[in-house]
Amino acid sequence: MASTQTVFTNNRPSKPIATIIKAGLIAGTLDIVTALIMFYMKTHKDPMIVFKYIASAAFGKAAYSGASFIVAGIVFHYIIAFSFTILYFFLYPRIKFMHNYPVLAGLTYGICVWLIMNLLVLPLTQLPPITFNLQSAITGTIVLMLAIGLPVSLIVHNYFSRNKRMIENDVV
């Protein structure tokens, strides 16, 4: 009888690009769905405004003028989600804490994502400066911990656990 691992992997190492795509899509989707729901619950406005807001980081106020900017917002959102996924994927084999404590590493990574976005990325965009609000910061951090950090960490941990020789040989 074949082991579960054999059934799922066919004794071949899985490909890193498939893992990155899977993790990026899951994390990006969890994050944006949460943002859309929270926006609607708070404002009772069309949640597609969220995508226009994301696009306005690059296009300024013009992003609120047409539906095509919704697509731009979606694309930008997933580019960011995939960027953080790729970064985690390449850090993982180099930082032992990440493979020893995947849940804690993922939650910590979510905090790092919030810090990077709010302290480095957003100030470089066309978005108006955001006044710091502790409750919003805590909520945003928790969302990123659970929607980005944790799923990316668990998916990447699972990938490298199945492909241990990649860590042992530092092949990424």
UniProtKB/TrEMBL annotation:
The chain crosses the membrane at residues 20-41, 70-91, 103-122, 134-156. Keywords: Membrane, Transmembrane, Transmembrane helix. This is DUF1440 domain-containing protein. The lineage of its organism: Bacteria, Pseudomonadati, Bacteroidota, Chitinophagia, Chitinophagales.
